[in-house]
Amino acid sequence: xxxxxxxxxxxxxxxxxxxxxxxxxxxxxxxxxxxxxxxxxxxxxxxxxxxxxxxxxxxxxxxxxxxxxxxxxxxxxxxxxxxxxxxxxxxxxxxxxxxxxxxxxxxxxxxxxx
Amino acid sequence: xxxxxxxxxxxxxxxxxxxxxxxxxxxxxxxxxxxxxxxxxxxxxxxxxxxxxxxxxxxxxxxxxxxxxxxxxxxxxxxxxxxxxxxxxxxxxxxxxxxxxxxxxxxxxxx
Lengths: 114, 111
Hints:
heterodimer, A: 114 residues, mainly beta, seven-stranded mixed sheet, four-stranded antiparallel sheet, 11 strands, 0% helix, 50% strand, B: 111 residues, six-stranded mixed sheet, globular
C-alpha cells in the first residue's frame, strides 16, 4: 500500500538555524498538510496546501514557517530561524480529495532544537 | 472554536475484553469525525472515518459511533488483543481543512 514518507526521521539543530523537513506524499493525492505534536501534547494543525498554494494555516504557522512543493513529488516545511519551542514531532499528511477522505500520515520527523 | 476531549487518558485491560473509548467535541457543526491509532515513535494510522450524515462505521473488531447532538463519539474494540496496545486519537473536521485532535487514550492490553 502506498504511504507518505518523511525524511529525516530525527533532526537536531541549534537555535537560530534553518531546517527543512521533507515529505513525499502519496502520488495521486492532491491535498497536503503539516501537523506537529509537542511531546505530551495534542497533534496540532499547521498548514494545508492545494494547487501549489496554502489553502489554510494556523496561528502557529507564522512568518518563520514556509511550505513548498518544488517538484511533482516532494513537499517541504521550512523553519527559517528555529526556536527551542519548535522542538516537536512534525507530521506530513496527504489525501486525494478534501473532505470525507481519511488522512494518510507519514511517520514524522522528530525535530530537536538545542 | 472546536475543542476535542478524550476520556480516559489511559486504560489498561486484560486480553479478550471488550472496551469503549470516548471522545467529545464542543462544536456540533462537524463535517466528519476520524479515529486514528498512534504507535510509539510512529505516525498516525487512520482507523475509521464517520461522516456527519452517518451514525457509525465498522471495520473488523472496531466500531465507531457519532452522535452530533450530544457532541460524542465512541470507539468500541471487541475482543481486545495485545497488538491493540497503542494510543487512540479522535479528530473532528469542521468547515475547514484542518482536523482538531484530542489528546488521545493510551490503551494497554495485557496478555
